[in-house]
Write a structure and sequence with these properties.
This protein has 139 residues and is mostly beta strands. Helix content is 0%, strand content 57%. The strands form two sheets. Strands 1, 2, 3, 5, 8 and 10 form a six-stranded antiparallel sheet that branches. A four-stranded antiparallel sheet has the order 4-9-6-7, with no helix packed on it.
């Protein structure tokens, strides 16, 4: 069933990619092993007519240094415009693993079918991991 989304004062039809019992399409993962911007191709996951993309960001961490971390995610569209989202978390030197999940809506253009990610830290133990899932789109 399609829902209605309002984007820039325009009514769009929202299509969910979620089905009970089925993990949504994976955009990719990030192991916090670089400070460079990582680029994920999303053009094959949603139609060219999409104007908005919904992405669930899942982060797990544990048994690492005691410090905050920041993550920026964005899409790009015409005239060097970016739709940037921000997440801040904290990692602890504990044996337990902590989890965080949030869904963001990004402006989308098929002329720039990419999702960009950047972090300001690297995992010292390899126990930080981020997964991205496409959960819906509006057109």
């Amino acid at each position: 069933m399609a829902l209605i989304a309002i984007v820039n004062n325009r009514q769009l039809t929202y299509t969910s990619l979620l089905t009970p019992g089925v993990v949504p399409p994976s955009i990719g993962s990030f192991k916090f092993n670089t400070l460079n911007t990582v680029v994920f191709d999303i053009g094959t996951l949603i139609p060219n007519t999409a104007q908005q993309l919904s992405v669930t960001v899942f982060i797990r961490s544990g048994y690492d240094s005691n410090s905050p971390y920041n993550v920026w995610l964005w899409t790009e569209f015409g005239n060097n415009q970016k739709d940037i989202k921000f997440k801040r978390g904290y990692r602890y030197p504990q044996s337990a693993i902590s989890f965080d999940s949030e869904t963001f809506n990004f402006a989308y253009s098929s002329n720039h079918p990419k999702l960009y990610l950047m972090s300001d830290v690297t995992a010292e133990t390899g126990n930080m991991f981020l997964e991205l899932f496409a959960v819906g789109y509006a057109q």
